[in-house]
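Cross-posted from the bioinformatics board.
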Amino acid sequence: MDLNLTPTELGFRDQVRAWLAANVPADWEKHRTEDEMLARFEFLRDWQKKVFQAGWAGIAWPKEYGGRGATLMEQVIFTEEMARAGAPPLANVLGLMLIGPTIIAFGTDAQKKRFLPNILSADEIWCQGFSEPNAGSDLANVRTEAKLDGDHYVINGQKVWTSYGWAADWCALLTRSDPNSAKHKGLSYILVDMKSPGVEVRPLRQLTGESEFCELFFRDVRVPAENVLGQVGDGWNVALGTLMHERATLGAGMQVAFKRQFDRLVELSHTIQRNGHTAAEDPVMRQKLAQSFIEIEIMRLNQMRAITRINQKGVPGPEGSIQKIFWTELNQRFQQVAAELLGPYVQLTKGDRAIDDGGWAYSFLRTRGNTIEAGTSEIQRNIVGHFVLGLPKSY
Amino acid sequence: MQFGLTETQTTLKNTVRKFLAAECPPAEVRKQMETETAFDAALWRKIAEQGWTGIIFPEEYGGFGMGMVEMAATLEEMGRALLPGPFSSTVLLAGSLVEAAGNDGQKKQYLGSICRGEAKATVALLEDSASWSRDAVQMKATGLTLNGRKLFVPDAAVADFLLVVARMDGDLAVFVVPSNAKGLRITNLPAMDATRKLYEVTFDNVAAELLAHGSHARAALDRALDIATVGLVAEMTGGMQRLLEITVEYAKTRKQFGRAIGEFQAVQHQCADMLVYTESSRSAAYYAAYAIQEGIPEARLAVSVAKAYASDAYREVGNRAIQVHGGMGFTWENDVHLFYRRAKASEVAYGDAAFHRERIAKVVVDGKVGSAEEEKVLATDAHG
């Protein structure tokens, strides 16, 4: 066991830290809270361009496609330092974390050259068209049809819960290319230009009040056959690669973000009154704060073990589901602790009386999505039960 | 960065597993727990022959000179096998306390006999208040004479000597007392976990030898408790691992409604939760061991994180294991309750979750550093 960073990694960390200290936009907080969604997105796109130009985008991606060719550990260090510095997120998050790695794993050389550099530079924003009204947890039930017509596929169908659909230039679309197939067979993973005729995007308002999600409609959308990623009919395996990346990497920067939020909550606990003394002096709140600290710390340790495993095996495995169950449920408990500590103030979403510009109210509502997005907790437990513990398949 | 066991550590862990599978199978655990002391001299001798009674102690005292991670790997296997008897009380608790509190001659005598497997020992700390805070110790030493009562002393009936924590001139002190000392009375406290016996020890003008006093004693006690706690959390992880294995196996074979109950998601999800608890405890246990080994400043915090989490986790894994086993899980014949009893005993040993959460709050909410003063004293002592 050796949890120290190597001298190279320490040098890399210091370099990242220095760059972030000099370059994180000072007015990010203002943009985050005051901008309309589209204006904020343009701000984040500019930020990613800046990150890309400085050579920090796609850290573990091959150099020939614009990446840095560095290690997974350095990718993790970068993600952590971003969170530690309170830096804005990168605009093309799905392209960077999910679709890019899938193109690297399954793409032809031409596809890699065509798509990867523009993911890094944020010139082309990506969304992921997986879920459908009747294919949620039962993702293999995908019905969106891709029918070969000469050298094109013609796409018809509907996708839902599509994050960044409103901003996306491209969509990684899971389709049924063989109409006579069922379930996991006969699916194809196709890269679709969102400006193609027949694509319609409708925003979907979520319980936080934002419209992060969209519904996508495809009516006779023609896509060149060369845009299939991986083998025709092998879309399930390609998509699975994406999902594993999603589960393995989604938590990386999250841990540092939780710790920052926790530190802020501790700060607040010294001023907020509870039962006739400060929350920091209240025995019940102290227990709850300590429990949140324990869980956030164990998330960090689990994360280190998961990264060690990925480094040894080369790919993320079904163990990623353990991580996903752990951090999503910890965040829900943590936000509840925060809500209890803030008391009536937690309700306030904006205005002078709202604590931290209503950020806690937002986090409280937003965390309900954690146990649903990227595979519900129930699906994650099915995966753990069957693929990790070897119990019989339940569905 | 590498968060996992090295090849050598894995080999050690496998060796311990194989040894215990042969020497201490479940039938043997049951046999020993039915005895008065849950101690088997032949098994103890074999454990000592492996060198494990001196696992973390310097070679100059007859120890094995291994690190805390090796210790945790060994203890994980002991917890998995539910090894009965005084290993933890003798080696981790008493051994570490002698090492941290004693002078060279005392270490040669007391630690040496532990390392060589010649002596069993224990620590008498808790009193009527049942508090794991060292400040709660009330028992007084008048000169080198002890009077009073200690409770929850593990394995006292088989110990050859006891380390006793008492107050001398208002400050904490650690003494050593041979178990055949005049005025010493050891009475069994019948308890849930029959694999490790607990005792009440009374002192009636008992003559004692001083090991440490004042800040030195406080620091030594903190260190011994930290090491014993990490060992316990590793044991708890091993127990959880075994409960998970037993339960998954049962869920695969037990049939209802014409199929294995493990096919039902209600059962499958219980097992998935057990895995999350087990793996998270494992992460916390090995990190705490590593933190002590490396002497990193947050080591005490890491110990509390691990103990607080595992205290709740082991009990919860036990709850789920019994539930999945249904009626079988509620029987005496099934081994699940043996682990469940151990889980409860482990939960309250060295401070329960609430105790360690408060200790964490003192650091992360109040911003107070652990016991910097004592750490410094100990470091000076170790190097001087």
